[in-house]
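User: Fold this; tokens only.

Assistant: Input:
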Amino acid sequence: MIKSKEDYYYYLEADRIALGITKKRPSLFTDEVWKYERLLRKVEYYLNCKKSIVWKPCYYVLSFFLHRTQVKLGLLVPPNCFGPGLSISHPGTIIVNGRTKVGSNCRLHVCVNIGPDVRTSQVPTIGDNVYIGPGAKIHGGITIASGIAIGANSVVRKSFDEPNITIAGVPAKKVSDNGSKGIIIEGTTLAKRRKGGI
């Protein structure tokens, strides 16, 4: 969660690296997903750090633009759900419940749905460096360990506590000992190195 201006800039840099982008600013007519992620982080910054009534109008304006961009791109990724290094592959339907907590360096593909269990209303908790393939559905009060790769069109309704594995299927089960390493970019690690933090 962004708790300072330094955090805000760190999240922006980690997201940029995780998206595989080398330039410093988005283009005017392209880079929609990158612009969306930057706006999401700005809303998080104002929500978490600018609590004074003076900043409320800015927060509401930014939230309005975030909502418009979500509708345009088909994305519903609420503030304060994802750690740094978020990588949304491209525009398309992605729906995430606002109470979900996801660690750093998550890679999301189109048609992903992360939400509550219908009966209990509990939501998933997902670790760091998780790859979520196209069409994956993750529901309920479950835990997904760090380093897991979730295959396309998988339905995940139970916890997977073993890190660095691949799960797939309906319902999802372990299919490989190969995790997400090599299929995601660890934006947080590279951002820290560039900043001199490691």
